[in-house]
């Protein structure tokens, strides 16, 4: 019987002590709540800024005209150029040279024509 009284008194004592000990979960919950509020505010601010930027781009996009494409000279490695010229000297047709050199027919004509 004395063991039961000791265990019961320890239980009552622990219950009383638990009322006076600070609850760390409340602090953690408040920090998480503050963090979520901050995150929501920052997300809203970013969305507003993004909307403003999109509107500016739409306004500027209507003013911008796309320049016409200019013919640019293709950049072809010297080894491929020499291979194309060698195949041309051997009498291969332009489509055959194109297949063997992995160039388009226009690029083959460009190389054979000396870059003109």
Automatic annotation (TrEMBL):
Keywords: Membrane, Transmembrane, Transmembrane helix. This is Resolvase HTH domain-containing protein. The chain crosses the membrane at residues 6-21.
